[in-house]
């Protein structure tokens, strides 16, 4: 009897974890791909504007300014529509990015560039600093999980999905037949700067194994190697050690000990 109860507890825990892991299989799936007449979503949650201000923004090209004190301050404005509890979760997502990195989120006062966090439809962000006000959408309740929140802030800092890396085929197999037909483009590769860091299966920017699955079968499988059974894709709840290194490298900050 005890064993059965334990099993139930474990499976409940696992399914909760699974729901968290699969950022791109759950919350973001409900996102409409067209936000408005000029803005659409790439890879499921990266907002792209076709207006005159649009620019292709891969890593280095759209960085937030670095202060003379060595920190990268990202000003934010939080919609008053969020409850106290929701506000706390969003701040936890910020703390997860700040810990061990030079990024600091500060409440918006007068800064020209800032993120405007709003409960619009779906979870999405623009890529990198666009200049001026830029929306990060965190719909309640689906997007209000620390992992999803940190993931969207990572986009705002300039990072694309880990499996979009140009060299990803050395590390994962994309199972094209298992992907929803109209979401195939979410699995494109991009010429990104991987900052000389290793491919990171545990990155908060990695899709889950079942992202955009049309039939419950995996859509991304780690390439065969000795430990491939132990590899979990899209850990989802916190930045990995390499994610933090990515931030510090992209923004030319020192090592972890400096913060
Ligand atoms: Zn994303």
UniProtKB/TrEMBL annotation:
Cite the GO molecular-function annotations of the record: metalloendopeptidase activity; zinc ion binding
| UniProt-listed InterPro entries | MetalloPept_cat_dom_sf, Peptidase_M12A, Peptidase_Metallo
List the signal peptide residues.
1-19
Q: Where is the active site?
A: 152
Q: Which residues form a coiled coil?
A: none
Q: Known Gene3D superfamilies for this protein?
A: Collagenase (Catalytic Domain)
Q: What biological process terms from GO does the record include?
A: proteolysis
Instruction: Write down the EC number.
Output: 3.4.24.-
Name of one Pfam family that matches: Astacin
Q: Which residues bind Zn(2+)?
A: 151, 155, 161
Named cofactor requirement(s): Zn(2+)
The Peptidase M12A domain is annotated at 50-254
What the record notes about the co-factor is: Binds 1 zinc ion per subunit.
Entry keyword set: Hydrolase, Metal-binding, Metalloprotease, Protease, Signal, Zinc
Supply the name of the protein.
Metalloendopeptidase
Per the UniProt entry, what species is this protein from, by scientific name?
Cyclopterus lumpus
Q: What is the lineage of its organism?
A: Eukaryota, Metazoa, Chordata, Craniata, Vertebrata
């Amino acid at each position: 009897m005890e064993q059965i109860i334990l099993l139930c507890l474990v499976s409940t825990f696992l399914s909760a974890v699974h729901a968290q892991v699969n950022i791109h299989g759950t919350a973001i799936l409900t996102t409409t791909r067209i936000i408005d007449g000029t803005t659409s979503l790439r890879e499921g949650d990266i907002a792209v504007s076709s207006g005159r201000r649009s620019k292709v923004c891969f890593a280095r090209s759209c960085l937030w300014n670095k202060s003379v004190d060595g920190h990268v301050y990202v000003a934010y404005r939080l919609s008053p529509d969020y409850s106290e509890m929701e506000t706390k979760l969003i701040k936890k997502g910020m703390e997860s990015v700040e810990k061990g990195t030079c990024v600091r989120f500060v409440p918006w006062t007068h800064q020209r560039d800032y993120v405007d966090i709003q409960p619009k439809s779906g979870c999405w962000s623009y890529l990198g600093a666009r200049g001026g006000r830029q929306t990060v959408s965190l719909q309640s309740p689906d997007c209000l999980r620390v992992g999803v929140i940190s993931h969207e802030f990572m986009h705002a800092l300039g990072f694309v999905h880990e499996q979009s890396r140009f060299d990803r085929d050395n590390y994962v197999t994309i199972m094209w037949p298992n992907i929803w037909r109209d979401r195939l483009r979410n699995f494109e590769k991009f010429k990104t700067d991987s900052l000389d860091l290793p491919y990171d299966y545990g990155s908060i920017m990695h899709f889950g194994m079942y992202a955009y699955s049309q039939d419950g079968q995996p859509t991304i499988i780690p390439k065969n190697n000795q430990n491939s059974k132990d590899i979990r894709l899209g850990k989802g709840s916190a930045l990995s050690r390499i994610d933090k290194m990515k931030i510090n490298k992209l923004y030319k900050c020192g090592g972890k000990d400096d913060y």
